[in-house]
């Protein structure tokens, strides 16, 4: 049953239409979530987010204790300490900042602290580059954090709010990072819907930590040493928690959909049903790719798009099911993760397919590094190469680089 | 072979909920030098007790009576700090006997 516009308006919570960039919108999400602590250090392109949040703090709009620490390493340390004391702790960073706190990301997940980090994806130097790609978040894909990727500012905002619920879920209790492409999303003004403060407050609810360093009636120690047995078991527990996260993420996404009219799951499939060739992507390039899919579909070409939202834990079964009908799968990686058989998204996708006995031709495209644009022409050329492979063209190079005009099968 | 499946029951995140249970971890086995107190010279000033990083000195009332060998790691700080220099660090293996 389709709803009339009026019916739709009353079914979902009424937000406010505003023009904001991704950084600003997530700053609003942070304001609405009103965490006990935000400890952060500035780094482009996270700065638009934190600058606005700092303004909210200065204007007395939040109760948050803002800790302007000396480094990102200190920022995550502070979040860990605060979370161990039962506080809601959040931070935001990018690029080298994420790298600087890398060892502590393992502590946050190992200590099972529901910290939320807002990542504005930026490349890793050297050479120095401050623009957007996924290398920073990919560099910590192993840390046991849940990772969500947004296509645009609205998704970044929605992910930010849901991230807290996912993190604090008693079956999960893991830190969560939600990612938005640096500059492309963070600095581009978009028309978005800001939820009412009360709606966000109700959705995230209250948080009661099971253990707290400040609970003197139930004294606990955090950060203990493990022997060989216990360490292995604690890491096993983390795998278990990530499995639970695979259940929890769509549950929270559905609940969010009931509130806002924007439900969320592991990914968004576009024109997958009879697609012979599918492109798998992460982040803002999905918008460009969707446009090209639409164009090519109107030309009668059976292409489809799979935009991954939940990258960690990787929803292998669901991804394999979504790609079941495809004969050729292209995966676009927007990160510099060297030395393997392709980029991280490609590796995860291929493993998911192979484990289930699915064997489409798979090709990896590395593109958009260091803020380099991925334009419709790139995507169209990619689809054309994939279609040619579907018609029997040999896969000369399984890993290709979107560098200059096509073809890419020789690069 | 190690036992399995303990992961279901151990405390998530390794949070220790039993206050003060570090006493159960017997670090005395780490020792290579053992402090021997020469009580004939000891003035019971308690400076060794104060400095010991493992709280491994045993007292009874106002008297020093010995070393908690389950927790003493043999660091030798007591021997350095003792104003009477009446604590002697000896080879643990020699004291234990059996080489």
Description:
The complex is a heterodimer of chains A (411) and B (99). Helices cover 41% and strands 18% of the residues of chain A. By secondary structure, chain A is α/β, with parallel strands linked by helices. Chain A has two domains: 256 residues, Rossmann fold, CATH 3.40.50; 135 residues, Rossmann fold. In chain A, helix 11 links the parallel strand 10 and strand 11. In chain A, helix 4 packs parallel to helix 6. The longest helix of chain A has 33 residues. By secondary structure, chain B is of the alpha+beta class. Chain B has a single domain, classed as Alpha-Beta Plaits, CATH 3.30.70.20. Chain B has a two-stranded antiparallel ribbon. A two-stranded antiparallel sheet of chain B has the order 2-3. The model of chain B has no long low-confidence stretch (mean pLDDT 93). The interface between A and B is medium-sized, with 24 and 12 residues.
Summarize the structure in short.
Chain A has 411 residues and is α/β, with parallel strands linked by helices. Chain A has helices spanning 5-11, 22-33, 47-58, 72-84, 95-100, 102-110, 135-138, 153-168, 197-204, 228-260, 285-298, 316-322, 344-355, 376-390; strands at residues 16-20, 37-40, 65-68, 89-93, 116-121, 146-149, 176-181, 190-194, 267-270, 277-282, 303-308, 310-312, 328-333, 361-366, 399-401.
Sequence-ordered SSE layout with sheet pairings:
The complex is a heterodimer of chains A (411) and B (99).
Chain A: H1 5-11, E1 16-20, H2 22-33, E2 37-40, H3 47-58, E3 65-68, H4 72-84, E4 89-93, H5 95-100, H6 102-110, E5 116-121, H7 135-138, E6 146-149, H8 153-168, E7 176-181, E8 190-194, H9 197-204, H10 228-260, E9 267-270, E10 277-282, H11 285-298, E11 303-308, E12 310-312, H12 316-322, E13 328-333, H13 344-355, E14 361-366, H14 376-390, E15 399-401
Parallel strand pairs in A: 2-3, 2-4, 4-5, 5-7, 6-7, 10-11, 10-13, 13-14, 14-15
Antiparallel strand pairs in A: 1-8, 6-12, 9-11
Helix pairs in contact in A: 2-3, 2-8, 4-6, 8-10, 12-13
Chain B: E1 33-37, H1 47-51, E2 57-60, E3 63-67, H2 77-81, E4 87-91, H3 92-96
Antiparallel strand pairs in B: 1-4, 2-3
């Amino acid at each position: 049953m389709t709803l009339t516009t009026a019916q739709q308006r009353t079914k979902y919570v009424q937000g406010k239409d505003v023009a904001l960039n991704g950084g600003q919108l997530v700053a609003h999400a942070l304001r609405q979530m009103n965490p006990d602590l935000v400890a952060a250090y500035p780094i482009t392109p996270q700065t638009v987010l934190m600058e606005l949040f700092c303004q909210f703090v200065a204007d007395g709009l939040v109760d948050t204790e803002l800790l302007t620490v000396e480094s990102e390493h200190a920022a995550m340390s502070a979040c860990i300490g605060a979370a161990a004391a039962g506080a809601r702790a959040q931070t935001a960073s990018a690029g080298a900042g994420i790298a600087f706190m890398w060892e502590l990301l393992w502590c946050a997940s190992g200590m099972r602290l529901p910290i939320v980090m807002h990542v504005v994806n930026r490349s890793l130097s050297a050479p120095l580059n401050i623009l957007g790609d996924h290398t920073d978040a990919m560099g910590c894909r192993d840390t046991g954090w849940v990772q969500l990727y947004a296509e645009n500012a609205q998704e970044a905002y929605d992910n930010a709010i849901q991230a807290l619920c996912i993190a604090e879920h008693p079956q999960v209790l893991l830190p969560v990072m939600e990612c938005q492409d640096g500059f492309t999303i963070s600095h581009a003004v978009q028309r978005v819907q800001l939820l009412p403060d009360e709606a966000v407050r109700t959705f995230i609810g209250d948080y009661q930590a099971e253990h707290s360093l400040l609970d003197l009636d139930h004294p606990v120690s955090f950060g203990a040493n493990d022997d060989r047995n216990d360490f292995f078991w604690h890491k096993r527990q983390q795998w278990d928690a990530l499995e639970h996260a695979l259940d929890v993420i769509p549950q929270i996404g559905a609940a969010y959909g009931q509130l806002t009219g924007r439900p969320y799951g592991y990914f968004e499939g576009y024109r997958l049903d009879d697609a012979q060739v599918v492109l798998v992507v992460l982040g803002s390039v999905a918008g460009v790719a969707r446009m090209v899919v639409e164009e090519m579909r109107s030309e009668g070409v059976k292409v489809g798009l799979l935009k991954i939202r939940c990258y960690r834990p990787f929803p292998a079964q669901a991804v394999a099911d979504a790609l079941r009908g495809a004969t050729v799968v292209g995966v676009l990686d927007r990160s510099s993760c060297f030395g393997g058989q392709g980029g991280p998204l490609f590796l995860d996708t291929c493993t998911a397919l192979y484990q289930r006995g699915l064997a489409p031709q798979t090709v990896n495209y590395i593109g958009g590094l260091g803020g380099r644009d991925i334009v419709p022409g790139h995507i169209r050329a990619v689809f054309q190469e994939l279609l040619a492979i579907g018609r029997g063209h040999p896969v000369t190079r399984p890993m290709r680089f979107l560098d200059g005009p096509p073809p890419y099968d020789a690069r | 072979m190690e036992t399995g499946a303990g992961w279901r029951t151990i405390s998530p995140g390794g949070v220790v909920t039993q206050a003060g249970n570090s006493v159960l971890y017997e670090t005395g086995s780490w020792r290579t030098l053992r402090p021997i107190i020469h009580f004939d010279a000891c003035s019971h000033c308690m400076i060794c007790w104060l400095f010991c990083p493992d709280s491994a000195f045993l007292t009874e009332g106002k008297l020093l009576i010995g070393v908690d060998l389950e927790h003493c790691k043999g660091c030798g700080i007591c021997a350095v700090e003792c104003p009477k220099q009446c604590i002697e660090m000896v080879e643990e293996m020699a004291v234990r006997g059996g080489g």
